Input
Amino acid sequence: MKGRQASAYLLLAPSLLGVLTFYVVPLAWGSAFAVWSPAKGFLGVQALADTMGNAMFQQGLSNTLLFLITAVPLTLGLALCLSFIVYFLRSTSGWVQSLLFLPYIVPTVAVIFMFRWAFDFNGVINRLLSVLEIPRVIWLSGAQMRAVILSLFVWKNTGFFVVLLSARLSGTPRELVEAAQLDGAGRWRCIWHIYLPQLRPTLVFSTVLCTVQALDIFRECYLLSGNYPAREVYTLQHFLYNCFHRGDYASAASALYALLPVIAGLVWLLLRGDAREKA
Output
């Protein structure tokens, strides 16, 4: 038994070493900057208090949360509807899934160029608005950029979740559906009482994953608007990047570690809710 345990630890050692080197040690080292500064010495909770009172931190946090509560439900709701459509179109589901998944694997830089071209003042979207006799909109400036970033996120990530949900739908036991149909249940009743309960674990996992992706929207925002965008699209990641760029490691670490409990709590609530449903 001890020999088998030793072999297991030996096989796990490379992965454990990688996690320790690239995750645990940097996390512990970064936490030190939240309470200590090379110039000022020990800071205690002063850096955290200063960060919480920073107007740009508050702006970035509110914009990030606003994006989170709009992008995640919209993406997953659209993915859920499309996954049912793909599932019921059995003869063409393969190439439809491939087509929907394509935006997810397109490089982000190429996506940014495409959206800049489409949402430019003389781009495709404004030309369509002109045809409909609607005034053109300056999409790439101010609050209008929220719609551009939201549409980019939804367009790029929906197909990935369609593939996840469709794969789970295809594993629904046929005998359950056939038994319900013999009892007179229509398609909507089957969706509500059979398919959706079967999808619950995958939906919880997709919600967690989509939340993480929504919090990681900085790359798209940065490529569209730079490191100092309009206040309406200034995210928490902008604040972290700018603090790190100017050497204010205490503020960057404080902002990051203030956000970690929020993310962990959200994931815990989702998983706890799923566990209660199973029980």
The first strand starts at residue 36 and ends at 37.
